[in-house]
Specification:
Number of domains: 1
Largest sheet: 2 strands, antiparallel
Strand content: under 5%
Radius of gyration: 22 Å
Helix content: over 70%
Order of helices and strands: HHHHHHHEEHHHHHH
Strand order of the largest sheet: 1-2
CATH topology: ABC transporter involved in vitamin B12 uptake, BtuC
Structural class: mainly alpha
Low-confidence stretches: none
């Protein structure tokens, strides 16, 4: 068993990453926190709207956008890749809505049709133009957040802000927070009751497309570090954990931020201990936090029910 699982050394796993190796693991943890927080805040709305798999659909639909952007620009630079992936993500959103609203196909089936078709088109394009494209389907699915500290540093007014992807993700998170604060009422009403939204003058269709645009930006911005599969988990786990503890949206957002911090911190330590992908370790840590909260809520519910049952004989005796 010791050959399969490395020996747990408390100081090496829990202390050294934040002291001796903090320049390396610090940026990794910051990037993990930024990505998970941005995904979690947007994911709260997806869960409320029962669209948790929308992130899966958008993230798998970006491959043709990446390929087409490369064919037009012959560059794998961040700008062309970002624009191509964003365009593909928005196209997937429009296609899903068109299938759902113009046919009798349910929304979950429409997601499955759209993202599998677009992903397959991307795979075909890679296969056809394989001699000219240094891309493959796997590069969209898997990423390694441990490479973040190796990126060029961004400076502003003589102050080092951090690696390129960290700075970009920080701006994306600030934009997400600003949009949530600025359109909190519209997002809240449209997520819970579209009829009430229309009655109060809010257009739920525009709110939906705006939310999907934000989702596409968040997913594409996180690609260089964590790729599609890990983004999907980060979109769902914080909101799912928060929904176990509260039904108030503002509180859900706060819990999502705490979940992101715990996932990043524990994920780095788990990755160091098991000597594995730190991005995947963050998702496992996030799932562990969700499981712990789930057990606590189940235990609390059982205790409360047991207390109610035990109090009934006393109530009968008093009457």
């Amino acid at each position: 068993m010791s050959e399969l699982i490395p020996t747990f050394e408390w100081h090496r796993v829990m202390i050294d990453p934040w002291t001796i190796d903090r320049e390396l693991y610090g940026w990794i943890a910051v990037m993990g926190f930024l990505v998970t927080t941005a995904c979690g805040l947007v994911g709260n709305y997806l869960i409320l709207r029962r669209m948790a798999l929308m992130g899966d659909a958008v993230s798998h639909s970006v491959l043709p956008g990446l390929v087409i952007a490369f064919l037009f620009t012959n560059s794998r630079g961040t700008g062309p890749m970002f624009i191509g992936a964003l365009a593909a993500g928005l196209a997937a959103t429009i296609l899903i809505e068109a299938i759902h609203r113009k046919t009798r196909v349910k929304q979950d089936a429409a997601m499955g049709i759209a993202f599998t078709t677009l992903f397959a088109i991307g795979v075909l394009l890679v296969s056809i133009y394989s001699e000219h494209i240094d891309l493959d389907a796997e590069c969209v699915l898997y990423g390694e957040i441990a490479f973040v500290p190796l990126e060029p540093l961004v400076s502003w007014l003589g102050i080092t802000l951090g690696p390129v992807s960290v700075v970009r993700m920080a701006f994306v998170l600030l934009a997400v927070v600003a949009l949530i604060v600025g359109f909190y009422k519209e997002l809240l009403v449209a997520s819970f009751d579209e009829a009430l939204a229309r009655a109060t003058g809010v257009n739920p269709t525009w709110v939906h497309y705006g939310l999907m645009a934000i989702l596409s930006v968040v997913i594409v911005s996180a690609f260089e570090s964590v790729r599609a599969i890990l983004v999907i988990a980060m979109l769902i786990l914080p909101g799912a954990t928060a929904s176990l503890l509260t039904d108030r949206l503002a509180v859900m957002h706060g819990i999502a931020v705490v979940h992101a911090a715990l996932s990043s911190w524990l994920g780095v330590s788990l990755g160091v201990w098991l000597e594995c992908s730190i991005g995947a370790a963050m998702v496992v840590a996030g799932a562990g936090v969700f499981t712990a909260v789930w057990f606590v809520t189940v235990f609390w519910r059982w205790r409360r029910q047991a207390g109610n049952v035990s109090s009934r004989p006393e109530e009968v005796a008093t009457t």
